[in-house]
Design a protein that fits this description.
about 5% strand
Length: about 290
């Protein structure tokens, strides 16, 4: 699916809105100010522009697009400003990495999935952008509460936990349709990053296998509490003739069992580990 999306983006370069998040932010600011200064404290702009299936069926088709500009935050100006800056920063970073074409398709595909659910809200679509950002820049640090440095990948896990909690709350309260909103937002992210997630899974799976093999080597040639069975290179001269001087850490050959074999010590292993000529260039380095 990701390859198809990449080909689609390549074949349709005109499907792009350069600086898309700039327009999203400006629209949110305008709606926020109209609600803030509306008479009687009633959010007139939000009520006229937010998504409503019944209103759309009655002819108010502009709501299919204008709900994108309805703020998801409260009337707290400080929280609203911080949220918009976060969306703007994340969106621009994705656009620089992907190009305007792919980011525009990513964003509008999330909008389309929300519309298909029937209860559209841009809150989870905007929040899901952080999953994409953390996948591309996992080690970038943010200052949590403006004090604590936290990497993007850990914040993404917190974001995922928040999404899971929201789905659970909707399900427990019987709002099954609303539970689909965060799910489709995550689905949009998975459509664009399935291959990246698969490659990361393969990478960590390979590392786990290598670590398991290293542990097998240690268990096979080391007794608990007695130190390594391989001979310390600097102490080898003190050994008697009845003991071996060299023992391969892989196959167990020694200079007594195979006097013609050549033995060497690996400088990349953590410790004095000896290997025969068959395994000096073909073994997993012990760290």
């Amino acid at each position: 699916m990701q390859q198809w999306l990449d080909r689609f983006c390549y074949k349709h370069p005109r499907l792009s809105i350069p600086g898309l998040m700039r327009y999203i932010v400006i629209g949110n600011v305008l709606v926020f100010l109209l609600d803030l200064f509306s008479t009687g404290g009633y959010p007139i702009a939000t009520s006229l522009l937010s998504f409503s299936s019944d209103a759309i069926l009655q002819g108010q088709i502009w709501r299919i697009i204008t709900f994108v500009f309805v703020p998801a935050t409260s009337r707290n100006i400080f929280l609203f400003a911080i949220t918009l800056y976060f969306y703007y920063f994340i969106g621009n970073a994705l656009e620089r990495e992907w190009g305007s074409n792919k980011f525009t398709i990513f964003y509008f595909f999330g909008i389309l999935l929300n519309i298909l659910v029937g209860t559209a809200s841009m809150y989870y679509v905007n929040m899901s952008m952080f999953f994409a950002f953390a996948t591309l820049y996992p080690n970038l640090q943010f200052l949590l509460f403006f004090i604590i440095p936290v990497k993007a990948k850990w914040l993404a896990w917190i974001d995922a936990a928040y999404f899971a909690l929201a789905v659970l709350q909707y399900l427990l309260t019987g709002h099954f349709l609303y539970a689909l909103i965060p799910i489709v937002a995550v689905l949009n992210y998975l459509l664009f990053f399935a291959a990246d997630i698969g490659s990361q899974f393969s990478y960590w799976k390979g590392r786990a296998k290598n670590r398991a093999r290293q542990n097998q080597y240690r268990q096979a040639y080391n007794h608990p509490g007695s130190g390594p069975k391989v001979v310390n290179f600097h102490d080898a001269k003190t050994k008697t003739k009845t003991q071996y001087l060299h023992k391969c850490a892989v196959c167990g050959k020694t200079d007594l069992t195979d006097p013609q074999m050549e033995f060497r010590y690996c400088s990349r292993c953590n410790g004095y580990y000896c290997y025969c000529a068959d395994h000096i260039n073909n073994h997993i380095h012990i760290q």
